[in-house]
Input
Amino acid sequence: MNILTSVISYLFSSHVKKRSSSSSKSKYTGSVVTAYPLASSASTSCTAGSSRADSCESFGDSAPLSSPFKSKFVEDFSVPEDSFPTLNPPRIRAGPVDVTFVRCLGSGTFGSVVLAQDNNQPGRLVAVKSIIKSEYMLEGFHIADDVYPLYCSQIKAERIALEKCAESYSPFLPQNVNFAQDARLCYFIMDPHPMSLDNLLNDHRDTSTPMPGPFLRWFIQQVVCAVLALHRRGIAHLDLKPANFMIKSDGYLCTIDFGLSTTSESLPRRVLGTTGYYAPEVVPVEGRPDLMFDTQTADVYSVGQVLLDLCLSPDDVVDFGAEGAMSRLQEVNGDMANVVRKTMLPWCERPGLKNLVYAPGMFENEIQYRTMKDGLLKAPWCPAPLSC
Output
């Protein structure tokens, strides 16, 4: 018993020292990607911004993690010099996974994502989401009091969701999913995609150019089909926003970031998701811990807010909150305004996504919907494939 107590005390003190040290040396407190190869002591870290939607693109669009890149990294992010690997380029070997990092792509709910080369299949690129587990838990026991109490369960929920997605063969859900772990990290390995819907919207905002009609209609239909495909597998996403819809090289959307997903039909009220996109009924009511919310119905509200983002002019100012959503809705006309209005009804009156499929202005007919659902329609535009 004394030995066990000593081990836990040592780990706890190391953890506290690590957290206080990192907070004093770095101005960023977001997710961290660190490689801990099984066959080597080499490691690498890249610290993302404090926002979950922040990107690591400032690391260099296609720069490998090499010596010239190292100096820029230290200058921009104040990362301690000893955090860089002696192995160059960084490599992960964990179970069946053997990948070499290329560059950081961004951060998500519970981890950061890097583009990597699959050494088992030369020429194949993969997206690797790395989640540090030893910083927050030891065999399910939380070492620090200030961490998310649901952290462990959410990692498991994300894996369950990804496994269900891979079994669906849907063009809108992640395929070719693999999992691995070592002593320090969990790895989710998936296909990478060129850009997100958020990237596309920002491009149009930056240039003040509206999205062409065929593109707009295509992505509105794609968002509805993507979330409906998820709901049919019994999964509620609970963090739907443009940044979590990737645009594949064939022009189809793929839903990502299942860190808040659930297979439960209802949950106790607690704020889940991103400001401006989560449904109002998820917010707790003081003195009423018994109140629940319907998870898939909450997703429908989020879908409506994503559709608003697509429909609004690039010059419109995004105003979050319930009043902001209503003011944004006034800028949308025609059938699409009616569709979005339905998604913003009180939760007990809000229709399911299947009802939106047949709403005026959505699909021309049942055949068009089924053809798109099966991935047989050709997209009006496709982004350039992702490369090193």
